[in-house]
Specification:
- The protein is of the alpha/beta class.
- The chain has two domains: 6-52 and 120-310, Alpha-Beta Barrel (TIM Barrel), CATH 3.20.20.70; 56-114, 2-Layer Sandwich (Alpha-Beta Plaits), CATH 3.30.70.20.
- Helix content is 33%, strand content 22%.
- It is built from twelve helices and 13 strands.
- Strand 11, helix 10 (243-256) and strand 12 form a beta-alpha-beta unit.
- The chain starts with 5 loop residues before the first helix and ends with a strand.
- The mean pLDDT is 95.
- Bound molecules: iron/sulfur cluster (2 copies).
Length: 312
């Protein structure tokens, strides 16, 4: 189709989902391409399957009928799946090569493989299927994660491929990477949705090895280079959902010339995934963020002159 698109066939990445009809991650109707791998470790992450770059097998205990087929049939050539507590399967991630054979074998669809190696050409072909919706709604593709900049070459080529096809590109990022790495992708992105998780440098250290100042300066430079940036701010009760943080977010937005802010109230919807991956989950006792409080924070931001919303 294009004379200069060789790299679309040669560049591979690890994608854990491609979802259509998103309406909250950028303008209009969007297709979200979720890349695996993240350089942060947020306890509240609702996509824990995104955190590791490698493909992974998950066991959905609510679907497993403990038939033992996956560990008694010899389906796993690596010997990575065995009988665990109560007869439930146990996956040794050190041995698993994510071949997917056990996924096929399970009669109850209780095993899921998170992550698939695919080329940019394959990913963009999926995205292109909804081009008519993008045209009608002003939508496009959103590159999400994980942190897309953990796979910078794949994300860059994917964004370029969309641009070549006149598809609007948004990217969700925490911007906690060196600016050159961020820009290598952002150069081809129209709308940057930058997560601002903390405004307190000490708290940010609990989820990142990168200084908080890097995030702030990256936003400043993106704006300086003419990029549209929206700040997206998760509100986690007990961690950052307080007036002081909201005041600092307002100050950040004003200083960085960012007009749009989304407040993202914490919810427990991703909790079940932790168990399926064999991960511990630290926020079991935490309640969902009170929407009324989030709306009050939103109103405060609007009163301060920002364009703020809850959700998004
Ligand atoms: S084959 Fe499926 S249902 Fe049977 S033990 Fe394995 S995961 Fe559970
Ligand atoms: S994905 Fe493949 S290697 Fe991993 S546990 Fe299943 S069969 Fe074994």
């Amino acid at each position: 189709m294009f004379l200069d698109n060789k790299e679309e066939f040669e560049t591979y990445g690890t994608v854990f989902n491609i979802e259509n009809y998103h309406i909250n991650d950028g303008a209009g109707i969007r297709t979200n391409v979720f890349l695996k791998g993240c350089n942060l470790w947020c306890q509240w992450c609702c996509n824990p399957e995104s955190q590791k770059l490698a493909c992974q097998v998950a066991i959905h205990k609510n679907l497993c009928v403990v038939c033992g087929v996956c560990y008694t049939s010899g389906v796993c050539a690596q010997g990575a799946i065995s009988k665990g507590e109560g007869g439930a399967p146990l996956v040794d991630s050190a041995k698993c090569v994510a071949c997917g054979a056990c996924v096929e074998k399970c009669p109850n669809e209780a095993i899921e493989l998170y992550g698939k190696r695919m080329s940019v050409a394959e990913a963009i072909a999926e995205v292109e299927k909804d081009k008519q919706y993008y045209i009608q709604s002003g939508g496009g593709m959103t590159i999400s994660g994980g942190e897309p900049c953990v796979q910078p070459e794949f994300a860059r080529q994917l964004a370029r491929a969309a641009r070549r096809r006149y598809i609007h590109v948004a990217m969700e990022t925490a911007a906690a990477v060196p600016f050159e790495q961020l820009w290598s992708v952002a150069e081809f992105v129209d709308e940057l949705l930058v997560d601002v998780k903390f405004t307190d440098p000490e708290k940010f250290k609990t989820i990142s090895g990168v200084p908080l100042e890097t995030v702030k300066e990256n936003i400043r430079e993106l704006v300086r280079r003419g990029k549209y940036v929206k700040m997206r701010c998760p509100l986690i009760p007990g961690l950052n959902a307080d007036e002081a943080h909201i005041d600092k977010l307002v100050a950040w937005a004003k200083e960085l010339c960012v007009e749009d802010v989304d407040l993202l109230p914490f919810h427990q919807l991703g909790k079940y995934k932790y168990a399926s991956l064999g991960y511990g989950y630290e926020l079991n006792e935490l309640r969902d963020m009170d929407k009324a409080v989030a709306q009050r924070y939103r109103d405060k931001m609007i009163a301060a002159g920002l364009c703020a919303d809850v959700g998004g």
